[in-house]
Amino acid sequence: MGVIVITGGSRGIGASAAEHCAQRGMGVILTYNSNADAAQSIVQRIESAGGKAVALKLDVADISSFEAFRETVKLTLQTNWGINTLSGLVNNAGYGLFNPLESITESQFDGLLNVHLKGPFFLTQALLSLMEEGASIVNLTSATTRVATAGVAPYAAFKGGLEVLTRYMAKEFGDRQIRANAVSPGAIRTELGGGLNDEFEALLVSQTALGRVGEPQDVARIIAMLLSEESGWINGQAIEVAGGYCI
Question: Where are the alpha helices (DSSP H) in the chain?
Answer without folding.
Answer: 12-23, 36-48, 66-81, 106-113, 119-127, 153-172, 198-206, 216-226
